[in-house]
Amino acid sequence: MLQSTLALSFLLIAVSSNLAMAINKERKLPETLSRGWGDDITWVQTYEEGLFQAKQNNKPLMVIHHLDECQYSQALKKVFAEHNAIQEMAQNEFVMLNLRHETQDKNLSPDGQYVPRIMFIDPSLTVRADLIGKYSNRKYTYEPEDMETLEGNMKKALRLLQTEL
C-alpha cells in the first residue's frame, strides 16, 4: 500500500512537472516593435507616427514591409539585424518603422505590394523613388546579399537630406 502511494505520488509529481514545462514553453514573450529587426533601434508604431517624427526631427523615415511567414523577409531580417553599420545608422540617423501590413498610402507601393520592401521618405514627406535596390521588377526589395546596396542607399538618404532640404 505504501509503495503504491509513493509510486502514485512520484507519478503525479512527474506529470505536473512536465505539464508546467509545457505551459512555460507555450508562453511567448511579448513582441516588441523591433520584431527582430534590431532591438537597440527606436521603432515607431504607425506610418503616421513615422511621418510626424521624420518631419519633427528632420530625419529620413525608413519603412520596412515584411511578413513573418515569408522566408525572404526572415532571411533579410537576419542579416539586417546583424549588420553593424546599418544598425548604427538606423539607431541614430533614421526614424524607423517595420510593417507587417500595407498602409493606405499608395505612394508606398509604386511597383506593387510585395515583401520584403524597404522605402525611404524624406522629412518633406516625399517618398524617395530614387533610392531603390538592384532589381528592375521589384525596385524596393533587398535580398540578404544586398546589404551593401541598402547601406549605400541609407547614406544617400542622409546626403540628400543635407543637399536638398
From TrEMBL:
Gene3D superfamilies: Glutaredoxin. InterPro entries: AGR/TXD, Thioredoxin-like_sf. Keywords: Signal. GO terms for cellular component: endoplasmic reticulum. Residues 1-22 form the signal peptide. It comes from the Eukaryota. Transmembrane segments: none annotated. Pfam families: Thioredoxin_7. Belongs to the AGR family. This is Anterior gradient protein 3 isoform X1. It comes from Microcaecilia unicolor. The gene is AGR3.
